[in-house]
Amino acid sequence: MAGKEDSETFFSAATPLAFELGSLPTTVIPADPSATDLTAPPKPVIITSPTVGGTYPVVLFFHGFYLRNYFYSDVINHVASHGYIVVAPQLCKILPPGGQVEVDDAGKVINWTSKNLKAHLPSSVNANGNYTALAGHSRGGKTAFAVALGHAATLDPSIKFSALVGIDPVAGISKCIRTDPEILTYKPESFDLDMPVAVIGTGLGPKSNMLMPPCAPAEVNHEEFYIECKATKGHFVAADYGHMDMLDDNLPGFVGFMAGCMCKNGKRKKSEMRSFVGGIVVAFLKYSLLGEKSEIRQIVKDPSVSPARLDPSPELEEASGYLV
After folding, report:
1. pLDDT over threshold 80, residue 134
2. pLDDT score for 11
3. Residue 275: enclosing H or E segment and its boundaries?
4. Where are the extended beta strands (E) located within 90-181?
5. How many CB atoms lie within 10 A of CB 227?
6. What is the mean predicted confidence (pLDDT) over 218-223?
7. pLDDT over 90 for what percent of the chain?
8. Of 222, 243, 275, 288, which one is the catalytic site residue?
9. How far apart are the first and last CA of the chain?
């Protein structure tokens, strides 16, 4: 019996806690635009917050093309349970807006977050204004990059960001057909970003699904985004999963149906992909915002600790100030 306990203890110690659900209970708080409430957001948002009193960093999370913010509830709850307030706006209604409109709307939501988020949080919970991160999936990943690069004309210039995470970001249908603003330059390390960046990719994203084109085509997907980042930057690719495999199970409605069938999907459990994505986000935020660097470095050193198979090998290129 002692040997079994030692083995279980070793496994627990060797597996980054970021991949597990965090210890904090959370609550989901929807907030909608209102002509009578001065604290109401400019776009519908879902706020997922710890309920335990404290001050927590804020993560802005932008959904993918034509998707709904509540499609990501499992991943968002995973992140929030580790001590983050996640704000997920709904940036489109029936039809997605133009790319620049979406980026400007994201800027408006970020401004609202800095001024009025507190009014919608549990009474004992506060947002740490010194630590704000951007994250997004698919087109929303591109939106997060565009905001970080200064393309949101609406954004209060005094607001600064501490980290950026792109989850299988996509900049268009092809190199020749990209969404506005066109941020890819096709020059290595050309992104002028002063924050650590993590790029998460999928092995099946660039592959076609029967007659449907790839959802994350070559030359406009995670690979190019990573190439154009400067250190500090990380790259983590889930080899056996597709572009939509981090979404919740059993998505409702026509949009949910399309999200489940339009992209090449993996055959492994989607729950493993959600744990992987949530874990990478958490580990990288710990690294970037809190200076807790051990977990993300462990994942790079030993990819086998990840719930999703990583191929190619994960990378973490650290600027000199992050090497300590």
Report:
1. yes
2. 36
3. helix 270-285
4. 125-137, 163-167
5. 18
6. 98
7. 90
8. 243
9. 40
Residues in Cβ contact with 176 at an 8 Å cutoff, skipping those fewer than 6 apart: none
Structure tokens at 264: 């090449």
Nearest Cα to Cα of residue 46 among 86, 74, 100? 86
Residue written as token pair 């990719």: 201
8 Å CB contact between 58 and 113: yes
Per-residue pLDDT band for 15 (boundaries 50, 70, 90) equals confident
Check: CB of residue 263 under 8 Å from CB of residue 228. Answer: no
138 is annotated as an active-site residue: yes
Strands 163-167 and 26-31: unpaired
Which of these is catalytic: 74, 168, 245, 248?
A: 168
Q: Are 235 and 208 in contact (CB under 8 A)?
A: no
Q: Could you confirm whether 243 is annotated as catalytic? A: yes
Specify which residues 47 forms β-bridges with. Answer: 29, 87
Locate 267 and state its tokens. 């055959």
Q: Tell how far CA 23 is from the center of its chain.
A: 20
The residue from 49, 81, 138, 306 that is catalytic is 138
Walk me through the domains of the chain, giving residue ranges and CATH numbers: 21-317 (3.40.50.1820)
pLDDT at site 6: 38
User: What pTM was estimated for this model as a whole?
Assistant: 0.94
Q: What is the pLDDT of residues 156-192, one digit of tens each?
A: 999 999 999 999 999 999 999 999 999 999 999 999 9
34-to-49, 80, 108, 118, 163 alpha-carbon distances in Å:
22, 26, 15, 17, 31
